[in-house]
Each structure stands twice: as C-alpha cells, then as structure tokens.
Amino acid sequence: MDHAAAAHRPLGAITVDDMAAALGAAEGAAAMHTALRRAVEVRGGDGAAAVWGELTRGVLRPSVPFAVHRMLYYGCYAGFPSATPPAWTPDREEAVLTNVGRVLEARGREFLGEAYKDPIASFGDFHKFSIENPEVYWKMVFEEMGITFSVEPSCILRENDAYPGGEWLPGAVLNAAGNCLTAKPGRSSDDVAIVWRDEGKDSEPLNFVTLEELRKKVCLVANALDALNLAKGSAIAIDMPMNVNAVVIYLAIVLAGYVVVSIADSFAAPAISMRIKISEAKAIFTQDYILRDDKELPLYRAECYTVVEQPAYAFTNILFSSGTTGEPKAIPWTHLTPLKSAADGWCHMDIHRGDVVAWPTNLGWMMGPWLVYASLLNGASMALYNGSPNSSGFAKFVQDAKVTMLGLVPSIARSWKSTDCTAGFDWSNIRCFSSSGEASSVDDYLWLMGRACYKPVIEYCGGTEIGGGFVAGSLLQPQALSAFSTPAMGCNLFILDNSGNPLPQDSTGTGELALDPTFLGASTTLLNADHHEVYFSGMPEWNGKVLRRHGDEFERTADGYYRAHGRADDTMNLGGIKVSSIEIERICNRVNDTILETAAIGVPPLGGGPEQLTIAVVFKDQSSQTEDLNQLKLAFNMALKKLNPLFKVSSVVVVPSLPRTASNKVMRRVLRKEFTQQPKHSKI
C-alpha cells in the first residue's frame, strides 16, 4: 500500500483498505469509513471546510492514529484552490463568548456603525478600527483588562518627534507589576495566580499560589531589595529557571521601581557576564537569594510594600536579542510594554479570568515576561512546570492543571509527535494553542490540534523589541496551519517589493516585512546600539511616516493569510529566483517519515558562481544515516518540482542536530559557513 499516495487522495477515493492501512488494523476500518461517508453526505454541499469540521467533531478523536487524521485532512482539501485551507473555523455561538466577540456584540454598532454584522463577519473591520481609532480602541482594552493608573494619561496617543510613531499615554503614571497583583472587579484575591509542579513528582497533587499569597511574596522580596540601598531605576539581573520564585522576584523588582535584567538560565558564564556588563546590573538573583558583592542577602520577612508608581516610559526590564551575530541588542521594556503583551493575550489568545495559561519558556526570553503579564493582567492563572516540556510528565501536568491555553515553539510539538509522549492524556480543556519562535510544520500542527479535539493554533510572530506580536491569529477567523490570519490588533504591516517600497495594502506578494511605527509597546531606544539606525535608517515612508524595519520575509496569500519565510537573510537565490529556506524546508520535511527536520542552505561554490542548494538532514533515528542519500536527494528534487521545476538540490548532508540559538531559532548562517568550508558530515 502506498501510504503517501493514499494520504492525498480525495475523500471519495479513500477505500476501506486505505482506512485499514492508516489505522494499522482491519478492525474498525469499515465503521470509520462509514463515518467518513456520512460526514461527506451531511456536509459535502457546504464545502470542504464544513466537511473537515464535521470530521474533527465526530470522527477524529485523539485516540485515532495520526495517519488517519492526515489522510482525511489532505483528502478533504484535495484540489482546494488555496495553499492555506482552514484547519479550524469559528463557531458563531462560541465567538460571542470570546473577549473580542463579547465587546463587539455590546458595542459593535458604536464602533463600526451600520457596517457591523457580527463578531466573525466584522472582525476585519474591527482591526482597521483599532488602527484608525487608537484613542477609542485602547481605552476600551485598558478598561476591559482593568488597568489602573495612579495618574491618568492626558490622552492615549499624541504626536511627539522624540517617539517614533508618537507618544503613548502621555503623563500617565503606573506600575505594571502592581496591576498584576491587584484584585480587580470580577477577580478575587483568593483566585489562583500560579499552578505548578516539579518534574519527577508527577503523581503528587498540584501546587497553587493565590493572588494574595503572590502579593505577599512579592512584597517580601521588594522590601529586601530596598535594603540594598540601590538607587531606584538600578538594574538587577535574574538568572533562574522559570519557576514561582523567579516570577516573584521579577514582579518584586518591577514593583519596587528597579529594572529587571533578563538572563536565560541556559547561558554559560561568558554570555551572562556580557549581559551584566551591557546592562550595568548592580545585583543578581540566582536562586532564592540575592547575590551582591559575593555576599548572599536573605529575604526579609515583611508582607506590606508601597508600590513605586512610575512614568509610562520608565524602564522595567532589559532583554536581549538572540545575539547570533556579535553582541546581542539590549532592549529595554517600559511600563507600556506589558500592556501590549497582555492586550495581545486578551485579543488573540482570548485569555480571561478562569483560564490556565502554560508556555514553556524562561524569563531570559520575551515569552517569559509575556507569560507573566498576559496571564496576570488578564486575571488568568499561570501554569509552571519545573522540568522538561519534552516529557510525559509535562503532558500530564497540562492535563492535571486543566490548561486552557498552551503556548509552545514548533520544535516541542515535533518532539511530542516523534516520541508520542502525550498519548493517553486528556487535553480537552485546551481552548487554543499558540505558537511562536520559528516556522511551524503543517503536519506537526495538524497532529497537535488533534491532541485537543481540534482546537486552533494561534500563530504569533513579533519580537522582543515589540513586546508582543505584529501578526497573529484570531478565534473569530478561520485558522490555517502554519499561517497567520491577521495583523495584530492596533498594528499595521507592509510587505516591501524588490525596490524596497510597500506593496499596496491587502495585495498579494512576498518580501521583507515593515511595520507602521505607530503601535503600543514598541521600543524607542537600545542600550548598546543606535535605535534609529537599526530600525528606521533607509526605510521607505508611508503616509508621511518612516516605516519600521523588522527583517522577516513574509508572504500575503490570495486568500488573506500571512506566511513567514524566516529572516530576510535566510533567503537564497536559486537560478535567479529568490526563495525562502522555510518554504523549501516545509516540503523536504515531509518527503520521508525517517526525517525529523531539515535546513535548506544556499552554499556558494568554491571559486564563485550561483548558490547551490544544500539540504541538511536530521533523522529521527541516528542509525538512519546509512540510508541511501542519492535516493533521498532524488526524492527532495521530485518534491521541489511542485514548488519550482528549476529548483535542484545539489547535495544532502546528514547532521546529528541543527545549530540553534538559545531561543531555538535555526542558525542557517552557521551551517552555510560550515558547508562552505568542506563539511565533515555524511554527504552526497
């Protein structure tokens, strides 16, 4: 049986034998095939998306082998006119229960006038409204999240040449951490703020920290910090795993008017030293004590603290870019940045009171602080697992903690799928997934959705210097795999043509991404680089504003989705055609079931000439390195013909793993350099 061929047959051509092959047994194949035929009969007249929705609701349970899910997904959309078919479609009854849906049902006509129809049909108009009416939109969001100011801003946004895109919340005085610890309307001090568990204690009860308990712990640390006699605004580093203590310390530093220096706990001494030097940190937290001048300072026993209210643009956090080329950029966050993080969670992931939010990360990367603010500012609980997410222990924690929003990077999903470590655990409480950090795989995320009875994956792309996303998904729009359905609320983005000019808005095309500089939370300075030079120098204007550089290669499809193609410097020129590494990798990853992942590299030949396409391959089983690489290269070339018949793989190189930054981004330039200097790995 040709499983690959069966996986792409139209539903009407799938036989009972095909079903048995996908199930791995004849038993149950006839019943499954009957259920398939019934779904086609009931919803076939409503289109492929309706049939797929019927299959995900009534046929494709988590216990059904993934081969069946895959066969029916590709069969459902065989011949579909778009490369981005919806894997999930919003339901009207569920849409009105979301944060945005609820607001639109109550105020849609106030915002959009007679053009308003319903939350699903009018979401696109509401996004435009968020850009064109920032005063109204952001006032509404802050009210919904219960953000409080000790001094109210004079307005939401005003022109100010000192701030690219304008000055947000002029005159406002607030404290982002203080807002996290406040019992707001509809939220009790007895609500769970953090649920956690240690690795290796998977059979023990969960641990809980209420909002009041968290407040007391944070005040205790804040008092200890003041005993250091540091000037307010001094930088204090955190180099710890993402656990309850780290969250308490993070909030305490911000609450007390100091600045967190975020350092990933995976860094070696030289990287830690570099970040401490750049930030001029005066002290560092390593575990449950403060280290200053080689002295351990115990935490004071005190539970009251007066919040240090600060101007909106006062620094709260210094984070660092990945630093794959030279010194990492030191990016300050202000009290505005957490509002952007939380607003994205409110709108795009629909985080609200009663939710449990998990995202394996670290305070050294932007998703660590993002998790703190997106959870607590929206009244949700944060779920922390003190151990590896690539384990059955984490999968059980997701089940036991009743996680409702699970964030991840694609490599985690790839690991789960490869090891099947999530099998047998009930993830039915999940309402949505979210994904960031790198390009995802259609098959991996189809598998992931199936683990939670086909809840959507909200793709999310942004940057540390933004404090959140510029492009995302929404529970009010159909979601396609490995694609974004909308620019983030309040954000306007542009794709640049080959001349560096913006394409007409809402037109199709591929090119480097640029951002309208007017969006809340974006950086306005860097500690160790010229902010204007990095983000604005040489960029085109639009409507009198210089656009902001981001550096990612993006595509806008004919049906309105966005697809990421990696960094602009991760593109290559093959035979005069510019193509993204990500685009090639998506195809190569699916050529052979023995492949874990690939990296596509354009390697200049010795002596010069056009770039030659090299595919680095990591096998699921390292013993597979004995596989016939000539056959694999042939398979790659056959698959790539569907992308462009002129693309040809020159060589295949087997590597044990792909080099990645500490934030999990593939360092293709490292491979390019290595392959240019005579690779030592298995090669053909």
From TrEMBL:
Its cofactor is Mg(2+). The keyword Transmembrane helix applies. Keywords: Membrane, Transmembrane, Transmembrane helix. One of its GO terms (molecular function) is 4-coumarate-CoA ligase activity. One of its GO terms (biological process) is phenylpropanoid metabolic process. Residues 125-180 form the Acetyl-coenzyme A synthetase N-terminal domain. The keyword Transmembrane applies. It catalyses: (E)-4-coumarate + ATP + H(+) = (E)-4-coumaroyl-AMP + diphosphate; (E)-4-coumarate + ATP + CoA = (E)-4-coumaroyl-CoA + AMP + diphosphate; (E)-4-coumaroyl-AMP + CoA = (E)-4-coumaroyl-CoA + AMP + H(+). It comes from the Eukaryota. Residues 187-513 form the AMP-dependent synthetase/ligase domain. It is an enzyme of class 6 (ligase). Its EC number is 6.2.1.12. InterPro entries: ACAS_N, AMP-bd_C_sf, AMP-binding_CS, AMP-dep_synth/lig_dom, ANL_N_sf. Signal peptide: none annotated. The chain crosses the membrane at residues 247-272. Belongs to the ATP-dependent AMP-binding enzyme family. This is 4-coumarate--CoA ligase.
